[in-house]
# Entry
Amino acid sequence: MLSKVQNTIENLKVLWKDECDAAYRETGFEWPLLKEFWITIAAAFACYILSEITVYFMYPYYYELFKFEKIERARVVKSKKNTDKAYSLIYHIFILIYGYMILS
# Structure
Protein backbone atom coordinates (compact mmCIF):
# COMPACT_ATOMS: atom_id res chain seq x y z
CA MET A 1 0.00 0.00 0.00
CA LEU A 2 2.73 2.47 0.95
CA SER A 3 4.70 1.62 -2.17
CA LYS A 4 1.59 2.27 -4.30
CA VAL A 5 1.20 5.70 -2.72
CA GLN A 6 4.89 6.47 -3.23
CA ASN A 7 4.64 5.30 -6.85
CA THR A 8 1.62 7.54 -7.36
CA ILE A 9 3.55 10.52 -6.01
CA GLU A 10 6.45 9.68 -8.31
CA ASN A 11 4.04 9.46 -11.27
CA LEU A 12 2.64 12.89 -10.41
CA LYS A 13 6.17 14.26 -10.29
CA VAL A 14 6.78 12.96 -13.80
CA LEU A 15 3.48 14.27 -15.15
CA TRP A 16 3.84 17.71 -13.65
CA LYS A 17 7.61 18.04 -13.78
CA ASP A 18 7.62 21.53 -15.25
CA GLU A 19 5.08 22.83 -12.74
CA CYS A 20 6.96 21.17 -9.87
CA ASP A 21 10.26 22.67 -10.97
CA ALA A 22 8.70 26.13 -11.28
CA ALA A 23 7.09 25.84 -7.84
CA TYR A 24 10.36 24.70 -6.30
CA ARG A 25 12.29 27.57 -7.85
CA GLU A 26 9.74 30.14 -6.70
CA THR A 27 8.90 28.89 -3.21
CA GLY A 28 11.30 26.09 -2.32
CA PHE A 29 8.36 23.65 -2.24
CA GLU A 30 9.19 19.96 -2.15
CA TRP A 31 6.83 16.99 -2.24
CA PRO A 32 6.09 15.60 1.22
CA LEU A 33 7.52 12.24 2.15
CA LEU A 34 5.43 9.48 3.67
CA LYS A 35 7.38 9.64 6.92
CA GLU A 36 6.10 13.19 7.37
CA PHE A 37 2.56 11.86 7.84
CA TRP A 38 3.37 9.93 11.02
CA ILE A 39 1.39 12.31 13.24
CA THR A 40 -1.70 11.87 11.06
CA ILE A 41 -1.44 8.09 11.19
CA ALA A 42 -0.83 8.14 14.95
CA ALA A 43 -3.79 10.48 15.50
CA ALA A 44 -6.10 8.28 13.43
CA PHE A 45 -5.03 5.24 15.44
CA ALA A 46 -5.50 7.15 18.73
CA CYS A 47 -9.00 8.30 17.69
CA TYR A 48 -9.99 4.73 16.85
CA ILE A 49 -8.69 3.45 20.20
CA LEU A 50 -10.49 6.29 22.01
CA SER A 51 -13.72 5.38 20.23
CA GLU A 52 -13.43 1.72 21.22
CA ILE A 53 -12.58 2.57 24.83
CA THR A 54 -15.53 4.95 25.05
CA VAL A 55 -17.91 2.31 23.74
CA TYR A 56 -16.47 -0.31 26.10
CA PHE A 57 -16.85 1.83 29.22
CA MET A 58 -19.75 4.15 28.49
CA TYR A 59 -22.29 1.92 26.72
CA PRO A 60 -22.97 -0.29 29.78
CA TYR A 61 -23.28 2.84 31.94
CA TYR A 62 -25.85 4.43 29.64
CA TYR A 63 -27.64 1.12 29.16
CA GLU A 64 -28.18 0.92 32.91
CA LEU A 65 -29.07 4.59 33.09
CA PHE A 66 -31.95 4.12 30.63
CA LYS A 67 -33.48 1.12 32.38
CA PHE A 68 -36.74 3.06 32.81
CA GLU A 69 -37.40 2.63 29.06
CA LYS A 70 -40.14 0.08 28.47
CA ILE A 71 -39.08 -0.62 24.88
CA GLU A 72 -35.74 -2.39 24.58
CA ARG A 73 -35.05 -0.90 21.14
CA ALA A 74 -35.40 2.66 22.50
CA ARG A 75 -33.06 1.81 25.36
CA VAL A 76 -30.40 0.52 22.97
CA VAL A 77 -30.75 3.49 20.60
CA LYS A 78 -30.49 6.04 23.41
CA SER A 79 -27.49 4.23 24.88
CA LYS A 80 -25.67 4.20 21.53
CA LYS A 81 -26.48 7.86 20.87
CA ASN A 82 -25.22 8.99 24.27
CA THR A 83 -22.09 6.86 23.91
CA ASP A 84 -21.39 8.56 20.58
CA LYS A 85 -21.95 11.99 22.14
CA ALA A 86 -19.58 11.12 25.02
CA TYR A 87 -16.91 10.17 22.48
CA SER A 88 -17.50 13.45 20.61
CA LEU A 89 -17.14 15.41 23.84
CA ILE A 90 -13.85 13.72 24.76
CA TYR A 91 -12.54 14.06 21.19
CA HIS A 92 -13.34 17.78 20.99
CA ILE A 93 -11.77 18.46 24.40
CA PHE A 94 -8.54 16.79 23.27
CA ILE A 95 -8.57 18.63 19.94
CA LEU A 96 -9.17 21.94 21.69
CA ILE A 97 -6.23 21.38 24.06
CA TYR A 98 -3.98 20.17 21.22
CA GLY A 99 -4.88 23.16 19.05
CA TYR A 100 -4.22 25.56 21.91
CA MET A 101 -0.80 23.99 22.52
CA ILE A 102 0.12 24.15 18.83
CA LEU A 103 -1.00 27.75 18.33
CA SER A 104 0.52 29.14 21.50
